[in-house]
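Example 5.3 — Protein translocase subunit SecY
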Amino acid sequence: MQFLSTLQAAVKVTELRNKLLFTLAMLLIFRIGAHVPTPGVRPEAMAELIASGVLFGFFDVISGGAFKNFSVFAMGIIPYINASIIMQLLTVVIPKLERLAKEGEEGRKKIQQYIRYGTAVLAFLQAIGMSVAIKGALISPTVVNYLFVALILTAGTVFLMWLGEQITEKGIGNGISLLIFAGIVSRVPEGVTRVVEYLQVGTINILSVLALLIIGTLVIAAVVAMHEGQRRIPVQYAKRVIGRRVYGGQTTHLPLKVNQAGVIPVIFASSMLIFPEQMLQWFSGNAVAAWFLNFFHWGSFFHTTLYALLIIGFTYFYTAIIMNPVDMADNIKKHGGFIPGIRPGRPTAEYISKVMSRITLAGAIFLALIAILPNFVLLATQIPNVYFGGTALLIVVGVALETMKQVEAHLLMRSYQGFIKQSG
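Solution (predicted structure tokens):
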């Protein structure tokens, strides 16, 4: 009900309505492009390749079916995500980039420019590897054709990057996140159709569908709770007298999100496990490769356990990169604040680090459970090809919540402006 009332209020505001229409128009262009085929590739051969490997299926889910069609948007926005992650890691280890990150808007624009260049380079390298990997689907597997397909795929990714930036600048929400959101949601009709077909032929029964709906509802509720969950550390600011005015003296809080890393650890862990598995499939005749594929295939006990452990490890690693307790403690001290019962400076940093470690454990375990959820859903419902895995739900729910928050922020800002005008 709150979602509908917020959307109804947003449509009534001219500026916000234009932003929503612009966002929808850009998403429509994305969905149209997902069905424009890449020249020189046989679509039927691509469908067979996707059915044969986990890696290709993963790309297809993220790209919203564009990879299955092998359209100009086949690589989706994954190279941009990888470039952004790499830049965040480099910002920590390269002092020049760290200084740029602290220079405000100008520094942010410079880093964004580096990310664009990195996206183009990564997209081209990935496109070369992808064109070689699908050589069986190429009409003419020659060097010239490899480069031709790679250039088209790179251009498609760069265009998607531009499209996402336009949505962020002129529309509502984070453009890149909304493109991934639209790609995942676009798979819903196909998934529903497949479930109906299973029901008609008797592969599954109505109880399996009800079980899937109940599990999905519970998972969505858990994702919302975890996304909104935070630990609020109280911060007290001392009173300061400057001239005839008294500043400070209020009590506020330092919010620490339980899931600070978002879905990034899942992407890290997926890349670590999927790529070696796909590479070894090309050497299936080798005894070592056959042993690895037998024990570490998707859904096996060893694969699931290793996947969960990698997610937990990457969650701590990524959270440590984006959250610096020493900087947080220095900022609190610089503004005359302190945590009640904790001395300013190093003790404050140690206290924040201890709290972060505890809540990160809960967030990491939750991410691991969400990521391996499809294995248990398949066992519980016996419905094959569950498109909405835990990772997809995590992305969809997170993007939806953040977008609605931005809409509500615009509405709140407009109500403040209206109040000021009426007062004037």
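Remark. The domain at 19-187 is CATH 1.10.3370.10 (Preprotein translocase SecY subunit).
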